[in-house]
Amino acid sequence: MTKNLLIKKALVIDSKSIHNGQTVDILIENGKIVEVKKTIVSKHKTFAADNLHVSQGWIDMRANFCDPGYEHKEDIQSGLIAAQKGGFTEVAVMPSTYPVTDSKSGIEYMLNAARESSVNLLPIGATSQQMKGDCIAEMLDMKKAGAAAFSDDKRSIQNAELLKTALLYAKSFDGLIIHFPNDKSIAGKGQVNEGSTSTANGLLGLPSLAEELMVARDLFLAEYCDSKIHLTCVSTAKSVDLIRNAKAKGIKVTCDTTAHHLLLDDSNIATFDTRYKTMPPLRSKNDIKALIKGINDGTIDVIVSDHTPEDIESKKKEFDLAKFGIIGLESAFGVLNTSLSKYVDLEKIINTISIAPRTIMGLEAPTIEVGNAANITMFNPKKEWIFTESDILSKSKNSPFIGSSLEGRALATYSGKKLSFC
Fold it and tell me: pLDDT (tens digit, 9 = 90+) per residue, 75-115?
């Protein structure tokens, strides 16, 4: 445990801090920021690095840790280690476990398992019982136990009445519903984005319409209920337009997209490499341009890893039989920064993985100022590196980025009175 630390010559990227944009020394004692000045002299342990930047500790708003039930893919400890490796000090974990995290005891299990970690785990409770989309779960009980939000992960709620009821129920205690928009009657058994690539490769297409119809429905429900909703894994240009217009009307909607949807497009699946198979499927280059525009103008609030571990037996098989999913915690910042650095200001990029997720989830923001608890990510946004399998601390290795050259890397985190190297 490193209670005391001096961070030297770091450029602060924190729009909530009075030190934003300044290169400073930061002195931490007993886990608290006690001094921020141009130059500080101290006998404490020192952290310094080339082109050092610091921000509020990064937070991933959606990841799967598969525990309990599927620990061979990931468990809570390995997931937290992977999160820290990627520069995250907090991570919101989806309820896709066995049994499903749809009760107070499930929330307590996750929190207890993460108690000793320097990475803060934020459990997401299921919106419906067993994530079956039939009856709403005991959300208030889970909220009192520590649930940060509610979601049926990627089992999109097809029953509009149930989602309406959930939105109204959550509104009564300021709960947040996170919903994955996907109309199953349109999506069918689609494997990849419907388009010229799917046709050329003989793979069953999954139309953008499946997402967009559900986005439109969810926006109507949020407006009707006057309740907040967060749409997750938004991937198409028309979805971005729908959400942009809804925000202009005052509908209480926020949304995220994934890091890999910003860098990869549907042409990557031409190799039939199942590591590129994900849900929603990789979309077109035009969709990527729309996502980047949405980040720039504030339509897209958050970028997530969508960390979805799958063991080799689930991935190394025929494309249409392989499971959907990409791991992303260790590579997330390199991937999103590589895709965005030429188009989006660094402060805005960092906001999508620090301030915005906390604002949406109603969490306290660990601003870099004297008197605050130290919750900091140290990084170099210009660091060029090759992502290798040795960088993966997750139990599963289903990443399409192995061997890729990335720009931007987390160097270390300070959280929970502990300095950890990435």
Answer: 999 999 999 999 999 999 999 999 999 999 999 999 999 99
Whether the link from the prior residue into 357 is cis, omega within 30° of 0, is: no
Rounded distance between C-alpha atoms, residue 76 and residue 114, angstroms: 7
Q: Name the DSSP class of 350.
A: H
Cβ atoms 48, 9 nearer than 8 A: yes
- Which fold does the domain 57-361 belong to in CATH? TIM Barrel (3.20.20)
Q: How far is CA 38 from CA 20, 63, 217, in A?
A: 13, 37, 52
- Candidates 14, 183, 306, 391; catalytic one: 306
3-state secondary structure 51-94: CCEEEECEEEEEECCCCCCCCCCCCHHHHHHHHHHCCEEEEEEC
Q: 68 CB contacts (<8 Å, ≥6 apart)?
A: 97, 98, 99, 109
d(Cα 379, Cα 396) in Å, to the nearest integer?
A: 25
Q: Which of the 8 DSSP states describes residue 229?
A: E
pLDDT tier at 2 (50, 70, 90 boundaries)? confident
Question: Residue 356 and residue 371: Cα distance in Å, rounded?
Answer: 22
Write down the pLDDT at residue 382: 98
Check: CB of residue 88 under 8 Å from CB of residue 415: no
Give the number of residues written for the chain. 422
* Backbone φ/ψ region at 343: left (φ over 0), alpha (ψ -120 to 50), beta: alpha
Is-contact 162 143, C-beta < 8 A? no
Active site residue 256: no
Q: Where are the domains of the chain?
A: 57-361
Distance separating the N- and C-terminal Cα atoms of the chain:
16
Q: 295 burial class (0-12, 13-18, 19+ CB within 10 angstroms)?
A: buried
- Its pTM stands at 0.97
Distance between CA atoms of residues 181 and 151, nearest Å: 11
